[in-house]
Amino acid sequence: xxxxxxxxxxxxxxxxxxxxxxxxxxxxxxxxxxxxxxxxxxxxxxxxxxxxxxxxxxxxxxxxxxxxxxxxxxxxxxxxxxxxxxxxxxxxxxxxxxxxxxxxxxxxxxxxxxxxxxxxxxxxxxxxxxxxxxxxxxxxx
Length: 141
Known about the structure:
alpha/beta; 4 helices; about 10% strand; elongated
């Protein structure tokens, strides 16, 4: 389910000013975070969900450079649960992916493709929210 559909399903309208593209590239993630954090305080988000944990690391960097305290003024969630996530300060709340299951499925898909037997070309894998220190309830409504 896309984020837009998930928001709509829960009666929340997406604000296009709060959606930034950071990609897999550190500089783009950092710039996207700066764009959000340079908004007027009353318009600035109280939380950012980063495309991946590397993007979240760049949100941390942007927040510190803008004098925004984590998580009191800004909560951050990443995606992947890569090695440094638990060691960051504050430790990063993230979504854990089942990398071993994804790897096995990729190998199976490659073997099926070599035999011309590909039946399914996309998969939905279970994920797990790993709650750590980077998220708190917002200080303002």
